Amino acid sequence: QKEVEQDPGPLSVPEGAIVSLNCTYSNSAFQYFMWYRQYSRKGPELLMYTYSSGNKEDGRFTAQVDKSSKYISLFIRDSQPSDSATYLCAMSSRNTGTASKLTFGTGTRLQVTL
Amino acid sequence: GAGVSQSPSNKVTEKGKDVELRCDPISGHTALYWYRQSLGQGLEFLIYFQGNSAPDKSGLPSDRFSAERTGGSVSTLTIQRTQQEDSAVYLCASSLPGRNQPQHFGDGTRLSIL
């Protein structure tokens, strides 16, 4: 079983819809949670960075962390065709010495249609 | 400002050859990470540098893989005697010093072994 599970999709939604992307994890030591967006043939781009449980909002994006359930979510409001990409969740632990290596989900491919 | 720069962007080589991949991090980022992204596998951590030293090499898949960093800046990842299973996108990320700083990625080197 992988440490981080993420539905690969693809997820297809109409323009303007609210999108919900999710990851579950098994390692209770994870305390830092990130969402990256990756366009085809590009590197991952950091969208959201949260610590511990709670919500964080940035424009059309909201990240939620529920440590008790080991479940994180990314919500995209008013989705646009330009949001079509692969979304990767990532997380790290404080207990890794000086390294902060990230453990990634496999990514969810999102397609926003006109 | 300039982001993380990786070269070459694409590399095709024959099985058994050695390859060198280069990463130029964001200026001032003392932490540098290498990851590998294979189809269906997501991103996997390879190695972490703090300055010129590599305190965490735990993700290197075999002794055919090595990496170095000079001057606290540019890093090279070397794969000797390449195998077909080495085909993947190799991504480099850098971050500011300190634990759990956000990591910023380059666009990667797409390596294909014939």
In short:
The complex is a heterodimer of chains A (114) and B (114). Chain A is mainly β.
CATH topology of chain B: Immunoglobulin-like
- The CATH superfamily of chain A appears as Immunoglobulins
Radius of gyration of chain A: 14 Å
Return residue spans of chain B where pLDDT drops below 50 for at least 5 consecutive residues. Answer: none
Number of strands of chain A: 11
Helix content of chain B: under 10%
Biggest sheet overview of chain A: 6 strands, mixed
Distance between the termini of chain B: 37 Å
Descriptive report:
The complex is a heterodimer of chains A (about 110) and B (about 110). Chain A has about 110 residues and is an all-beta fold. Chain A has one domain: Immunoglobulin-like (Sandwich), CATH 2.60.40.10. Helix content of chain A is about 0%, strand content about 55%. In chain A, strands 2, 4, 5, 9, 10 and 11 form a 6-stranded mixed β-sheet that branches. In chain A, strands 1-3-8-7-6 form a 5-stranded antiparallel β-sheet, with no helix packed on it. In chain A, strand 4 and strand 5 form a beta hairpin. The model of chain A has no long low-confidence stretch (mean pLDDT about 90). Chain B is an all-beta fold. Chain B has one domain: Immunoglobulin-like (Sandwich), CATH 2.60.40. In chain B, the strands form 2 sheets. In chain B, strands 2, 4, 5, 6, 9, 10 and 11 form a 7-stranded mixed β-sheet that branches. In chain B, strands 1-3-8-7 form a 4-stranded antiparallel β-sheet, with no helix packed on it. In chain B, a hairpin with a 3-residue loop joins strand 4 and strand 5. Chain B starts with a strand and ends with a strand. The model of chain B has no long low-confidence stretch (mean pLDDT about 95). Chains A and B meet through strand 4, strand 5, strand 9 and strand 10 of A and strand 4, strand 5 and strand 10 of B.
